[in-house]
Design brief:
Elements (H helix, E strand, L loop, with lengths): L5 H30 L10 H30 L8 H9 L13 H19 L7 H37 L1
Length: 169
């Protein structure tokens, strides 16, 4: 078996980490499928709202953590400043000439802004203040969002594969 050089290993490891994180996102989406019907009831409990809110929070955190790994490995680190969460999302939709192609499309970035906003809200309000309709809307968008993310990540995997081959020659 041929031992790959460190850079080639690095790109392959990043691809494997992204794939593992995506599998976790699928698990979270299945959890949402199992509980989101509770949001259709008129008497939805704050416990159900908190539970669904927590899963949505985890969902965006998983995406953001993945973007953070890409930024650390390819961009030279995470953005700095108070708005680093927003900047990270912006950077993932941008091509950085000579560094990497966009990780996600501009349309997916726009959709993810809703989840970033919810993540911020969820962390800074009391759970009993959560709005059922907003949570319900976000739940309905998870499946198509996950499909778009998968499409974008498959393109990005091709880039990582090409880099891995390029540095191993």
């Amino acid at each position: 078996m041929k031992v790959l050089n460190k850079n080639s290993q690095r790109f392959r490891r990043l691809k494997a980490e992204i794939a593992e994180a995506f599998a976790d996102l699928r698990t979270l989406a299945r959890e949402l499928e199992g509980i989101k019907d509770s949001l259709s009831r008129d008497d939805v409990s704050t416990y159900d709202l908190r539970a669904v809110g927590s899963i949505l929070h985890d969902f965006y955190n998983g995406i953001e953590n993945t973007f953070g790994r890409v930024a650390q490995e390819l961009n030279g680190g995470l953005p700095a400043g108070e708005d680093w969460h927003w900047q990270l999302l912006v950077y993932m939709a941008a091509e950085i000439e000579g560094v990497r192609p966009p990780v996600i499309s501009k349309s997916l970035k726009k959709e993810l802004q809703r989840y970033l906003g919810f993540r911020h809200l969820f962390r800074h309000i009391y759970g009993f203040s959560l709005e059922k309709e907003r949570i319900k809307e976000l739940c309905e968008r998870v499946s198509p969002l996950l499909s778009s993310l998968e499409t974008d990540l498959l393109k990005f995997y091709q880039y990582l594969d090409a880099l891995s081959k390029e540095v191993s020659m």
